[in-house]
Amino acid sequence: MKKALVLAGGLPQIELILELKKRGYYVVLADYTEHPVAENAADRFYRESTLNVEMIRKIAVDEAVDMLITCCTDQALATVSALSQELNLPCYINKKTGRAVTNKKYMKELLTRYGIPTAKFQIFDRPQSDIALPFPVIVKPVDCNSSKGVEKVFDSAQLEAAVAKAVSYSRTKEAIVEEYIDGREISVDIFVQNGKAEVLCASESEKVFNEHTFVIYKGQYPAQISEAVYADIEKIAQRIADVFELRNSPMLLQVLVRDEDVYVIEFSARTGGCVKYRMIELASGVNVIKSVVDLFEGRPIRICPRRFSGYIIDEFIYCNEGVFDHLEGADLCINNNWVKEIYTLKMPGECIGGVKSSGDRIAALVYAADTYEEYVAGHNNVVNNIKVIDHNGQDIMRHDLLPKL
User: Fold this and answer.
1) Which of 130, 145, 179 is the C-terminal boundary of a domain?
2) Which CATH number is 226's domain given?
3) pTM above 0.85?
4) Are 189 and 252 in contact (CB under 8 A)?
5) Are 164 and 210 found together in one domain?
6) Cβ atoms of residues 12 and 38 within 8 Å
7) For the chain, what is the domain count?
8) Phi/psi of residue 252, each to 5°?
9) Are both 194 and 175 inside the same structural domain?
10) Which of 139, 143, 222, 281 counts the most CB atoms within 10 A of its CB?
11) Residue 221 belongs to what H/E stretch?
C-alpha cells in the first residue's frame, strides 16, 4: 500500500487525508498539537512540529513514505519541499523555491528586485529603535504564519519591543519591518498551470479592530474592486509566477488596494488556510485540495474556473480565555439553512488564550447566498443562536466580533 505523510492537522488537512485515502494511501499525520482536529482522519499520528526538519525526516524514513505532503498551510511547505528533494519524493516546488515563498526576507528581496509593487522594508536580527522608515510601520517575523508576532507600531519605544517579539517567533531569528500602507486587504487564490496564473477567487479580508494586531474575522467574496484593479492583480500574479518559476502550483496572493494602486503584502505557493478551500470551490468550482494531490502525483492539471454571481462569506468565531468544551447551536443554524456550513476548529479540553492570532479561531462559518440581504438575514439568525461553551458551562464567545448587521 502507498503511504503518505501529511504535515499539519487542521481542517483542510482532513479533506487532504480523505482525498489521499480515496487514492489508496495509508496516511500518517504529524502536527505539534496534542490532539489536532485531523487526528482521527489519519491512520497514524505523530505529535511533532512540522518545522522540526530532523524529526520529520526520521518519521518519513522510518515509515518509508512514498509522499510527503501538505496543503493550505505556509511554513510546513518549506519542510515538505526541502525533505522531498532530499529524499527523492515528489513535490511541485524545489527546496530553493520553498524557502523563497515561506521566508519574507527572500520573498521581498525578489519582489523588489523585479519591480513588483510592495512596501519598503528593512530586516533586523535584534531589537531596534532607529529605522529609515516613517511611522507607523508593520513588524513581522520573517518566517511565521497565522499572524503570530505581527504588530503595527507607532514609535521607537514600541518598535524595539515589537522587533524583539518578532525575532523570538522567527526560526531564523529575523524580523521584517515594513512601511505601512493604508488600504483594503484583498486575498487572492490562484492556480498556476503550465506557467499561466489563473485567478480562482478574490475576497476582501476584515480584521479585528485593534490598532496593533491583524487577526482576520471575516472574508467576503467577491472583493469589491474594479475590473482595472482585478486586471492589475492578474498581471502581478503572472509576474510572480514567472519570477519565482512556478510552473504548476497553487498560489495565495495577499495585496493591499489603495485607491486604484495594488501593493503585494506577501504570497505563498499554497492555497489559503482554514475554510478558504471551500470558498474557492463555491466561487470557482475548483477543488484545490484534489488538484494539489494531482500535482504531487504528477497528474496533468486542468483548471477551468468560473465566477459565482452571488456572495460567499467566511466568518470566524473567537473567544475569551477559557477551556473549550463545545459549540452550541450549530445544528439549529444548519437545519434552518441560515448558514451553509459550520466547522469546529478546536478539540474539547483545549485552552483558549483569547484573540492573539488566527490560530485562536474556535469555529468557521461558511455562507453562500444569492444576495447580500440573504446573507445578512442568515448571519443575524446565526449570531443570535450560536454560543461557545467552556468547561464551566459559560458562553465565552466574543460576540462583539460578529455583531448583528
Assistant:
1) 179
2) 3.30.470.20
3) yes
4) yes
5) no
6) no
7) 4
8) -110, 120
9) no
10) 139
11) strand 216-221
Residues near 150 by beta carbon (within 8 Å), at least 6 away in sequence = 138, 139, 140, 141, 166, 213, 214
Q: Please, which residues bridge with residue 218 across strands?
A: 206, 315
Per-residue pLDDT of the chain (405 residues; tens, 9 = 90+): 999 999 999 999 999 999 999 999 999 999 999 999 999 999 999 999 999 999 999 999 999 999 999 999 988 999 999 999 999 999 999 999 999 898 899 999 999 999 999 999 999 988 877 788 999 999 999 987 667 788 888 998 899 999 999 999 898 899 999 999 999 999 999 999 999 999 999 999 998 755 556 688 999 999 999 999 999 999 999 999 999 999 999 999 999 999 999 999 999 999 999 999 999 999 999 999 999 999 999 999 889 999 899 999 999 999 999 999 999 999 999 999 999 999 999 999 999 988 888 889 999 999 999 999 999 999 999 999 999 999 999 999 999 999 999
**Residue 162 burial (CB < 10 Å; 0-12/13-18/19+)?**
buried
Give the residues across from 45 on adjacent strands: 29
Q: Comparing C-alpha atoms, which of 30, 32, 38 is closest to residue 11?
A: 38
User: Distance of CA 153 to CAs 30, 137, 157, Å?
Assistant: 35, 6, 9
Count of Cβ atoms closer than 10 Å to residue 57 Cβ = 16
Q: Does residue 238 fall inside a structural domain?
A: yes
Q: Are strands 44-47 and 25-31 parallel, antiparallel or unpaired?
A: parallel
Provide the domain limits for residue 10: 2-91
| Amino acid (one-letter) located at 219 | G
- 110, part of any domain: no
